[in-house]
């Protein structure tokens, strides 16, 4: 008789609890351990499914005796328990690695420093018009839970570098790399090269039958591809260079060619604004083209897609001032795109947990577009040092309601108020979603 495998799961959030449910259904003995307090909704799921769990502690003996450990992406490899597991050769994997072995679905994996949420949501929006497809990874219900409850024929997965660090055999048939800019360097020993390697793990197990769609305007990606070998077929997209097999912008038209099959779409019909969203649309449309979605369906989907919450989300216009929620901008490059897209004088709310940020690339837009800066964080020293001499008004706040009231006083008719923090949210908020919702609530309460 086959031995029952033990799985220990570190972290009882969406991915941890989803993995626990799938593992139990597949005959594993499951133990869930969370160093913090488990949210009530997840605790109830574990109790109702008779899954063994603990909170506010890790019982090392139970975890070290596991055959495999699934680690939630928020837990660094540097914690002592994970180091001991690796020393003892206990496999430490991510949810996507564990879950993928239980589905035969076609997988589209999307990663990148910025744009991956919008690209994943847009790709799913196009594909679902004609295919049976789930959207998972960093979005919505976990991949593991969806395999258990639906097992779609196709999946679009938004995948972080932390999730890719925990893969062994995971392989998407189509991988998308939106861009690579310095982010999460605190998790990569402040070495950009290690972060780049992590992102390219999305293509680690791909073969010549698979595809890697990537931004050909991104020097980091292009240089890495020059110096490293990828098995998969390369499909670039670009705003500036014509692509024989890939996507590019020709005047105002997006042109996508795959094996001489061409699709042409006007870029000015996109519902999403900004050059970065033209790229996101190219990536999503290229996936759809590879999966044989009809051209008309792709065009219509691009024209009716509504965008994602907390990403350049127009909240309200009050006294002719537009309030914009870009709370998902947790790094400098994301804020770069937000400031680049601003067309009116801007009161900018910035700040949070700095991840080793370099702010220089924002200076041109601050000089051109920003009339006042509101720093929102526990420690705003670095922001004050970087931006203090660049605008007439720079101020500090420590709550969202205070920041929004300050913005209301500073903004005049025709201005915009932009929350685009360029930092993580964990100093004052539970998550970027919590930060964005607090911003919207504060605006609605003005």
TrEMBL record:
GO terms for biological process: cell division; cell wall organization; peptidoglycan biosynthetic process; regulation of cell shape. InterPro entries: Mur-like_cat_sf, Mur_ligase_C, Mur_ligase_C_dom_sf, Mur_ligase_cen, MurD. Transmembrane segments: none annotated. Its EC number is 6.3.2.9. It is found in: Cytoplasm. Keywords: ATP-binding, Cell cycle, Cell division, Cell shape, Cell wall biogenesis/degradation, Cytoplasm, Ligase, Nucleotide-binding, Peptidoglycan synthesis. Signal peptide: none annotated. GO terms for cellular component: cytoplasm. ATP binds at residues 112-118. Cell wall formation. Catalyzes the addition of glutamate to the nucleotide precursor UDP-N-acetylmuramoyl-L-alanine (UMA). NCBIfam families: murD. This is UDP-N-acetylmuramoylalanine--D-glutamate ligase. It comes from Bizionia saleffrena. The lineage of its organism: Bacteria, Pseudomonadati, Bacteroidota, Flavobacteriia, Flavobacteriales. The gene is murD.
